[in-house]
Design a protein that fits this description.
Elements (H helix, E strand, L loop, with lengths): L5 E5 L6 E4 H16 L5 H10 L7 H9 L18 H10 L5 H10 L8 H8 L2 H13 L24 H24 L1 H5 L7 H18 L4 H16 L6 E5 L6 H16 L3 E6 L2 H14 L6 E3 L13 H8 L4 E5 H8 L4 H4 L8 E6 L9 H14 L3 E6 L24 E2 L4 H7 L3 E4 L10 H9 L3 E5 L3 H8 L7 E3 L5 H19 L7 E5 L13 E5 L3 H8 L11 E6 L9 H13 L12 H10 L8 H4 L14 H7 L8 E5 L11 H12 L3 H7 L3 E5 H10 L2 E5 L2 E4 L5 E2 L3 E2 L8 H4 L2
Parallel strand pairs: 3-8, 3-9, 4-6, 4-7, 5-6, 7-8, 10-15, 11-13, 11-14, 12-13, 14-15, 16-19
Antiparallel strand pairs: 1-2, 16-17, 18-19, 20-21
Helix pairs in contact: 1-2, 1-8, 2-8, 4-5, 4-7, 5-8, 10-12, 11-12, 23-24, 27-28
């Protein structure tokens, strides 16, 4: 009888082709076991795979699966017949009733479609009549051999990291189950898509290409002090790659070649220690494309994947291997964001968790590590420690301003920090390297507490021919820009990604032209801090509104970046608008504290440890209580009672609950670029397809919901589809400033020129 029970039917084949249920269960079990083998959990994964669709043995589900494949069949199934994930979960709870092992399988099996549950919700579901009925009906038809443990003796004492590591181990197991289930289903239902999961080049092959590129760069590089220093950084990275896996820091000043040198370390470290892949994580989508462009010049586009919200796919190519590989990170080199990486490590959704097993035995490079969010710093460090200690992961903290991530105690427990016990610095003498690569002199105001007015600041900036001014808020950017002479450039997040990219590209061209004597037009730029982290741009003079020490250092990295002059000039000023309450203001206050009584270089390397100690000491580093929600402490009904779904809702690096995005009508500097019009035409005609929405990401601006609702009421935007807002007013988007949220003073036409 079991030979006729099926998992699914592929209707596009003549007469329909059925996949036997027993085949699906065994194949998923084996695939999950193979994925879990690198972290010594193959037997757990195999059993979860064999039991995950136990509920499909029910007569009601068998009837349902046949009816949905026959368009001429009148349905006789009930909603209850369509469910199938409770049976295996309840079976495991009953089978292992004398121990807590059953709870592991219950989490995995009951969640394999809906996403990970909070235990209390899952327990209530398992206690319900529907779950008991589903299991009873399934047991009548399921083959006895399915329930054999094949000698497996589950022991929760073997969980890597003990009770503190249970949540990560559980997610990794869940990852193997859902990925194996997806892949087996895809292989049967859509062989064309499955075949597009072609093999990527090996990590060794990519390493060979990388080495050839670096040799070519070295051969063409001029003999300058900066290039000599970059070569030494590269050499030290290659030398350190032979060290034992663990946590490394790469402390190199901005412009010192961190990106390529950290990648060299990763490739060499992978060869020495047999690592499976490299994951390069970047804090902002606004700079990830720059790094991806660097990688794209070294490797072919289908050799690595970009996984972030701005990654585009083309019509008809949505299932290309690089797009498919984003689902489970089945590639040797991944460029992604901190949001994608860390939110996945605390996620509940199957789509987010699916990739997690690919982290095992990998190298994670965290670019701009000082930007790890303070309010989530404790859970982030906790999970990185688990990955390095128990899952063969090497982490590289790559930054010009190394944060203070060692442990420390505090009278206030919320201000204490269980940090990294041991971090290996790759650079032999960071202080000496900083001295060699110093290219800008930072000047502080005489009084750090007395603000200046915008007019005097603008007048001073206007006296420079080529200058970048960086402020901390969008309002400050507008106030300063509006007081500068005509032709000044503006950058802020009120501009869509395509607009910002175009402006930065033009700025680089204008700077090159000025350096080559091809232009004598003044170039004055006002930007929010979006230009600080990772944007390769080089001004002789930079002004920076008083901010955190790390922000000041990042701003200095945009000054005399290539050392074309003896010493660039960075001027810190106190703006008339304070940073809003929160981390920005705390950073500003901590800068004042570490500068108090300090007569030397304001960016002296010795100041950063006390600065970050002050900053982190002023914050609750587990603001959302993630650690408590993931605690396994308790007995009886409270044992292993995690709040997995609650944590996934809490752990949001970008808090978007009070925000909404609008698609804007940005048509380029001259107003005649029609790309957005074509995309919106397709959106109206074809609806919100994934590839199309990814392209439209380049034309979106995120605002407070209250502002979007006001614009909707005023007729400036329209809700084209539920939750998809599109600009309809011609004056809503300013060609220089971006979205006109509060109304621009004066005649907007006069502001264009």
């Amino acid at each position: 009888m079991t030979s006729t029970l099926i998992a699914r039917i592929r209707p596009d084949i003549s007469g329909g082709q059925a996949q036997l249920l027993i085949d699906h269960l065994e194949q998923v079990g084996q695939a999950a076991a193979d994925m879990a083998a690198p972290f010594a959990s193959a037997q757990w994964a195999r059993l979860a795979g064999r039991w995950h669709d136990l509920g499909k043995y029910r007569p009601g589900f068998q009837r349902y699966i046949r009816e949905i494949s026959d368009a001429h069949c009148e349905s006789s199934t009930t909603p209850r017949d369509k469910t199938h994930s409770a049976a295996g979960a309840l079976w495991a709870l009953n089978y292992f009733s004398h121990q807590h092992t059953g709870r592991v399988f219950a989490y995995l099996i009951a969640s394999h479609h809906a996403g990970l549950y909070d235990w209390d919700d899952l327990a209530a579901r398992m206690a319900g009549d529907d779950a008991r009925r589903e299991l009873a009906e399934a047991l009548e038809k399921a083959p006895p051999a399915l329930f054999s443990l094949d000698g497996f003796k589950p022991d929760l004492k073997m969980v890597p990291g003990g009770s503190a590591g249970f949540h990560l181990w559980l997610r990794l197991l869940f990852s193997t189950l859902v990925d194996a289930d997806f892949l087996d289903t895809e292989a049967f239902m859509n062989t064309e898509v499955a075949n597009r999961r072609a093999a990527f080049p090996t990590l060794l092959a990519l390493s060979t290409r990388f080495d050839a590129h670096m040799d070519q760069l070295a051969a063409g590089a001029s003999d300058t002090p900066i290039n000599r220093a970059r070569s030494e950084v590269l050499a030290q990275c290659r030398e350190a790659s032979t060290l034992a896996p663990g946590i490394f820091s790469l402390t190199v000043p901005t412009g010192g070649g961190k990106t390529l040198s950290s990648l060299a370390f990763a490739f060499d470290h992978a060869k020495v220690h047999g690592k499976r892949r490299i994951i390069y994580a970047i804090p902002y989508t606004s700079i990830i494309e720059q790094t991806a462009d660097v990688f794209g010049r070294i490797f072919s586009a289908d050799s690595f994947i970009e996984h972030h919200s701005n990654a585009e796919s083309e019509p008809g190519h949505e299932d290309h291997q690089t797009r498919l590989a984003c689902e489970n990170w089945d590639a040797p080199l991944i460029v992604t964001t901190n949001v994608q990486l860390f939110e996945s490590l605390f996620a509940a959704k199957t789509s987010r968790c699916r990739k997690l097993h690919s982290l095992v035995n990998s190298i994670i490079v965290l670019d701009e590590a000082q930007l790890l969010p303070a309010q989530f710093l404790q859970p982030i460090v906790d999970v990185l420690k688990l990955l390095t200690m128990h899952y063969g992961v090497t982490v590289v903290l790559c930054t010009a301003t190394q944060p203070a991530l060692g442990s420390r105690n505090s009278f206030d427990a919320t201000r204490g920090f269980a940090g990294f016990d041991h971090v290996t610095e790759i650079i032999a003498d960071p202080a000496a390297l900083y001295a060699r690569l110093k290219r800008a002199q930072v000047t502080l105001p005489a009084d750090l507490n007395t603000p200046r007015d915008w007019d005097s600041i603008a007048g001073e900036i206007a006296g420079h021919d080529s200058v970048l001014a960086i402020v901390s808020t969008k309002k400050s950017a507008y106030e300063l820009w509006s007081r500068l002479p005509a032709g000044a450039v503006h950058l802020s997040s009120l501009m869509c990604g395509q607009h910002r990219s175009n402006v930065i590209k033009t700025l680089r061209q204008q700077l090159a032209s000025k350096r080559d004597g091809g232009s004598d037009m003044p170039l004055r730029v006002v930007s929010t801090q979006l230009i600080e982290a990772g944007v390769d741009i080089d001004f002789p003079v930079v002004y920076r509104a008083l901010a955190g020490l790390d922000s000041i250092a990042q701003a200095a990295g945009r000054c005399n970046r290539e050392g074309r002059q003896a010493m660039g000039q960075v001027h810190v000023f106190v703006p008339p608008i304070q940073p809003p309450p929160g981390l920005l203001r705390k950073g500003t206050d901590c800068s004042k504290l570490v500068w108090h009584g300090h007569a030397g270089d304001p960016l002296d390397l010795t100041l950063f440890q006390p600065y970050f100690h002050q900053l982190y000491g002023s914050c609750d580093l587990d603001e959302k209580g993630i650690k408590a929600d993931l605690s396994t402490q308790g007995h009886g009904d409270h044992a292993l009672a995690l709040k997995l779904r609650t944590v996934s809702k809490k752990f949001k690096l970008i808090d978007d609950e009070d925000t909404a995005s609008i698609i804007v009508l940005y048509r380029g500097d001259t107003g005649d670029q029609q790309a957005i019009d074509g995309l919106l035409g397709m959106l109206r005609n074809e609806g919100p397809q994934r590839w199309l929405m990814r392209k439209l990401q380049r034309y979106t601006v995120t605002l407070y919901q209250r502002d979007v609702m006001r614009m909707l009421a005023d007729g400036d935007v329209a809700e084209l589809f539920p939750g998809i807002f599109v600009q309809v007013s011609d004056v809503l988007y300013h060609p220089i400033l971006g979205v006109n949220v509060d109304g621009l003073p004066g005649d907007p036409a006069q502001l264009i020129f």
